[in-house]
Amino acid sequence: MNIEMWLYISKKKLINSSTPQLDVETLMCYVLKYSKKTLFLNYSTVIDCDSLLKLNYLLCRRMLGEPIAYIINKKEFWSLSLFVSSAVLIPRPDTELLIELVTLHTYLKNEFILDLGTGSGSIALALAREYPSCKIMGIDNSLQALSVARYNARKLNINNVFFIYSDWFSHVPLRKFHIIVCNPPYLSKQDFYRSIKDLVFEPYNSLVSGKYGIECIQHIIVNAYRHFTSIGWLYVEHCYKQTKIVRKIFKNNFFVKISSIKDYSNRRRVTFGCLLKN
């Protein structure tokens, strides 16, 4: 069987995928180690038996709904090619909004930035790349996730970032950080079970906050002040439906300059605010 025929047949099998053509091309490039350009120039090439077996195995995983990022162990975020596994949440394009907002602080120099719940390290590594003179700390309560984040730092040769084990702020230094960023779990249990078909392959604890979905966000906002220097900025990603309550929690904890910013789908996705300490 040649490449063109396999792509044609396989695409028709991905009836539940919104991007079947892209999916099969990605799998083909992954197995044959082709670029997209090389793939298009070699449609008539016959696929060898070992590659065909591997392609069909990976295709079956995709047919069962497993995300492409887990199948090929790769996801791009902020132009960084990250290794991902089922131990970490797959970085979403909307989360890049966090990086865009933080980079508005163009005066940052030799500051400490904290990334809570770092997962694959995507946010911490993107900020470390943007701010080479700053020190970025990423924390997670999953040892497997920390292994992935550290691997990505080595792979990308980013040296101004370090990752430690911490259950939110439990092992985080006091009065240290100028900026804290976080993409925390913000689904309720009910939200998760409504969306389980789309999320079943991703780590439950990275998605579900608790009964109401706001528990982790509230904990972060309430406790952030202990870890800021004299002035601190907190950036939190959340569900657009939580915007009102998130803003209220910010306000109740004495944050000022509170703003909620829309994502690429025109939904309010990130709320941030400033805390001035005496």
Automatic annotation (TrEMBL):
Protein's UniProt keywords contain S-adenosyl-L-methionine: yes
Native organism taxonomy: Bacteria, Pseudomonadati, Pseudomonadota, Gammaproteobacteria, Enterobacterales
EC number annotated for this UniProt entry: 2.1.1.297
Release factor glutamine methyltransferase N-terminal domain sequence ranges: 17-72
Catalytic activity: L-glutaminyl-[peptide chain release factor] + S-adenosyl-L-methionine = N(5)-methyl-L-glutaminyl-[peptide chain release factor] + S-adenosyl-L-homocysteine + H(+)
Transmembrane segments: none
SUPFAM superfamilies according to UniProt: S-adenosyl-L-methionine-dependent methyltransferases
Record key words, sorted: Methyltransferase, S-adenosyl-L-methionine, Transferase
Encoding gene per record: prmC
Gene3D superfamilies for this protein: DNA helicase RuvA subunit, C-terminal domain, Vaccinia Virus protein VP39
Species name: Buchnera aphidicola (Cinara pseudotaxifoliae)
InterPro entries attached to this UniProt entry: DNA_methylase_N6_adenine_CS, HemK-like, N5-glutamine_MTase, PrmC_N, RF_methyltr_PrmC, SAM-dependent_MTases_sf, Small_mtfrase_dom
One GO BP: methylation
GO molecular function ontology, one term from the record: nucleic acid binding
Domain spans labelled Methyltransferase small: 95-202
Annotated protein name in UniProt: peptide chain release factor N(5)-glutamine methyltransferase
